[in-house]
Amino acid sequence: MAFQKAVKGTALIGGGAIATVFGLSQFSQHRNKHGALAQVQAAEAVPGRQEHLPTREQQLAALQSGAQFDVLVIGGGATGCGCALDAATRGLKTALLERDDFSSGTSSRSTKLIHGGVRYLQKAIMRLDFEQYRMVKEALEERAHLLQSAPHLSGALPIMLPIYKWWQLPYYWIGIKLYDLVAGRQCLKSSYVLTKSRALELFPMLRRDKLVGAIVYYDGQHNDARMNLAIALTAARYGAATANYTEVRRLLKCPDTGRVCGVHCRDVLTGKEFDVRAKCVINATGPFTDSVRKMDDQEVPNICQPSAGVHIVMPGYYSPDNMGLLDPDTSDGRVIFFLPWEKMTIAGTTDSPTDVTAHPIPTEEDINFILCEVRNYLGPDVEVRRGDVLAAWSGIRPLVTNPDSKDTQSLSRNHVVTISNSGLITIAGGKWTTYRAMARDTIDAAVREHNLEAGSCRTMGLQLEGAQDWSPTLYIRLVQDYGLESEVAQHLASTYGDKAFEVAKIAQVTGKRWPIVGKRLVSEFPYIEAEVVYGVKEYARTAVDIISRRTRLAFLNVQAADEALPRIVDIMAKELNWSEQKKKEELETAKTFLYYEMGYKVKTDQLTDSSEISLVPADIERYKKRFRMFDKDKKGFITILDVQRVLQSISVQMDENTLHEILNEVDLNKNGQVELNEFLQLMSAIQKGRVSGSRLAVLMKSAEENLRRQAIPVDRSGGGL
């Protein structure tokens, strides 16, 4: 099917099987010379904002009340929640249904960047593509809005483009300056050129040889899943009936006209099925766009061509605290990015065609490609180890394309609004940064097509959940008023904004002198147990919701997330009255999620019972000697009792559950003991860089050194009394 381009973004409604609206805003219509004043007026014009967030049960009751909604949105990603917020703030009676959790798909698996698209601007200029240029311009305006609407969840990030050829310096400098120029008044900070020495000072891990200099420009960065949730919660506070874990089974059509008039859906958690009536139904399901369109018309051609981007998380020492790195032209033509995020480092690529029906599972090949690219940019003194990959995931980009097109790299993220003969409105394509503009164009089309009584868009300048009373120093009040650790307080302030006080109020007393409240879920991350309780209030209903979207633990360290799961399940069980059987199911489901979707499988595959032992004889003998210090009885294996005995001899206390976890990491055949061969496989994998951070290896080495110091006689220790 050939696409029809709408002139200047005007909808072509009526006539054929589909009317297409390319979502490129008319800045003359939507921009106001008095920008800040317009934002304040927009915020004041919206309907009342509820102080108390409705519970999920109350939301479901509203959906099942039999009342007809003006707008019903299918999909709880950034675009779907944006549509619900836009409609609700216009005074429309709004519903939103999501079959999984809010932001469970593409919207939580992004690069975490809020950007206009440097690469798209390059293509627009090289190909003289005015439509693509306008898309970049719109995205840069929306970037400014997104940073202002939730400053606690977002901020400006300097990104370095390292230059290794002299001719690239003026080429990229002109391109980046044009990027600043297109942004105009919305430019975050002016880009600048760095000398080689200054670039290495700011990014000391960078490869030095052949480095000419660097260019630094600014884009935005955010906590994507929490941003998505903030949009959903804000929509709920403005009266939208939003429900996660509510699956649309089929579309309802009026017998007389054949027009879509609602949906038949099912509460995934209880199995209860019910109808929801609406004047207008909006399909905002991202990569699953075509499956909903085929509920309306089985013969409709596909308009969505997914593309996968693989991301890995590495320790924070791989990048500076506040400087990213990007190469728009890698060896295979893809973009590689290297960004600090949540005190870790994200590295990843874009543009690999994928099958949307498949689970987005990162492969070992994907991870090794990224590591290879990372090695190309870091100096030889920085050893890039496979074992330093703490988490890995694959995000699907729902690009809109002609069904005959095979090349996703040639596509920009233009969004498209389509209206079927039966009145189903579909919003497809686009990108995270432009979610608000996409929602605006969609609701505008809905108002026109279905003759809804509503005003113009009122979301420009609207502050999202947690932003209203947030300030950069809010965390200090949390420390002073509640006795939270400074790191925990900063995390709560940057995650919940002014709602951080509600989390602090329910934080448990630690029983220590300091911190007074705030028990951590895992020691190395600032997430506390109270966040699990608060997460349930934010509509979290599974352990996966907590580890991946209410907190970001699964995206930062799968092993830490796995260790936190039992406690998370226990807390949720109290809040949601789970049975013992339900707790086991939740634990197993969450572990499966970590294993397949977050890279735990490819991490654990680095050490298997068939792993090769490639150690020189001297190393084998050294490690055997270390092993025998624990295996005093020469059994050929060590157990928790053996480790406890050695620890007691050096006056180290460690609880049994922790010891069990430590041994379980290395116990490849899961028989409750670590055999000599398993230990040698571990040490071999550590030497090759395929495993890092093994607690058993560190513990045994430390114990060996302590025992050796205890064994030094007085006459060889430098004297004594």
From TrEMBL:
Catalytic reactions of this protein: a quinone + sn-glycerol 3-phosphate = dihydroxyacetone phosphate + a quinol
Domain EF-hand: 618-653, 654-689
Localisation: Mitochondrion
EC number assigned by the record: 1.1.5.3
The keyword Transit peptide belongs to this UniProt entry's keyword annotation: yes
A biological process term (GO) from this entry: glycerol-3-phosphate metabolic process
Pfam families cross-referenced by the UniProt entry: DAO, DAO_C, EF-hand_7
Recorded GO CC terms: mitochondrion
Function text: Calcium-responsive mitochondrial glycerol-3-phosphate dehydrogenase which seems to be a key component of the pancreatic beta-cell glucose-sensing device.
Family: Belongs to the FAD-dependent glycerol-3-phosphate dehydrogenase family.
Descriptive protein name: Glycerol-3-phosphate dehydrogenase
Gene source species: Junco hyemalis (Dark-eyed junco)
